[in-house]
Amino acid sequence: MPQLRRLGAAIAAAAALAALMTGPALAGGSATVTIVEDGGGAPIAGEEREIRFSLLQHGVTPVDFGSAQLLASLAGSDEQVRVDAINVGDGEWITTVTFPIAGDWSVRVGHSDLATPPPTTVAVDSRAGLAWLPGALAIGTVLLVVLVLVGASTLLGRRRPAADPADPAVTAVRAG
Predict the structure, then answer these.
(1) Which of 46, 58, 117, 144 could form a disulfide with 128 if both were Cys (CB 3.0 to 4.6 A apart)?
(2) Which CATH number is 59's domain given?
(3) Backbone phi, psi, residue 163, to 5°
């Protein structure tokens, strides 16, 4: 009889464990991730990048519960990034990430309560050292145009000195 009780308890425990493991899958515990806005272009190592994404349960119902994170790792290294996302409503989340070095990063969105798609590869560019160059060139071009316009207006605005009435050439022109 005690063996029968132990067997019954073991079966009950196994059934409870199975129910706990399959519960989220049967309840629709998955979400799709769609990048809404990522700042455009490839991320640049060392620069902050805001990423907006939407989470939809079964691709339909906005996910506004739990917590979400952006998880990234660089293959062949110990580099990892984990950044919490902020829920802004209607299934949309925002996070700001800085990839420390260039390379092909494996990136995915994780959620505390739902399974999310597998990671995707994101190429991070290494132009961080020259990222200031386009802005500096634009400012330099504007300053050059301003200097040219000021110089041209100064040259065009100069008046010739007035003729001296005592000059014999001026007197001869007036007399003639």
Answers:
(1) 46
(2) 2.60.40.10
(3) -70, 140
Domain hosting residue 85, numbered range: 29-128
Dist. CA 149–CA 159, nearest whole Å? 18
Count CB neighbours of 33 within 10 A: 20
Of 88, 106, 84, 110, nearest to 97 (Cα)?
Answer: 84
Residue of 114, 91, 95 lying closest to 34 (CA atoms): 91
Cα separation of 10 and 168, whole Å? 128
Say how many domains are in the chain: 1
pLDDT tens, residue by residue, 37-79: 766 788 999 999 999 999 999 999 999 999 999 999 998 999 9
Q: Per the domain annotation, does 90 fall within a domain?
A: yes
* In-domain check, residue 49: yes
